[in-house]
Amino acid sequence: MPELVSQEIQNYIEEKGLQEGDKLPSAEAMAQMFGVGRSSLREALRYLEALDVLTVANGKGIYVRDVGTYRFAGKIKIENEKRFLLSILDVRRALEGKAVELAAKRITQAQIDELTACLNEYSRLKELGKPTSQIDLAFHRGVMSAASNPILASVLESISALYEKFFNEPLGEQKLFDETYEFHHTMFAAIAVHDPEQALVEFNKLMDCIENIIKAY
């Protein structure tokens, strides 16, 4: 929903011919305009602010930042999406890295079995040449669940719309991160034997691989 709302906001900017510095309606007005809840609107605004489409000035309003940089049909220029993905990657390193450490300490046998099945399905889809983005996302969510920290889970969920950009054709490429496949297995192997230090090493290899791919794209 937040991604749909963000697209509606971009469409509104284009239709009204708004330019840099122009003020948008208030958050309350836009929530009513698009028929969405405040939480979905806030998430959409955070997303657009991260992409430099908007500036949200507390107590002052919401302003267009740079319409010339974007095509409002929904495709963002590659350089700006790269910057956005790298910013979210920093957040993933901090939050998900901690989840990996905790999962290695706390994972149960039932969760090990679930993640094993997840990786088996990942392998099957990859061998068939089918999209793996959603099973990849399911694997990472499984690791987060194994961390058994509801506060950390809540923080990760609060940025889910931004986080999932990694799994919804980032940079327009469904299989952009195929090169990270092996690190899912090595990271899980360390988690399964309760080795948090090695699990974090393998997680950072995965993150480094993604970062290098984004920068080289």
Automatic annotation (TrEMBL):
SMART domains: FCD, HTH_GNTR. Transmembrane segments: none annotated. Keywords: DNA-binding, Transcription, Transcription regulation. It holds the Pfam family GntR. Residues 1-67 form the HTH gntR-type domain. This is FadR family transcriptional regulator. It comes from Paenibacillus lignilyticus.
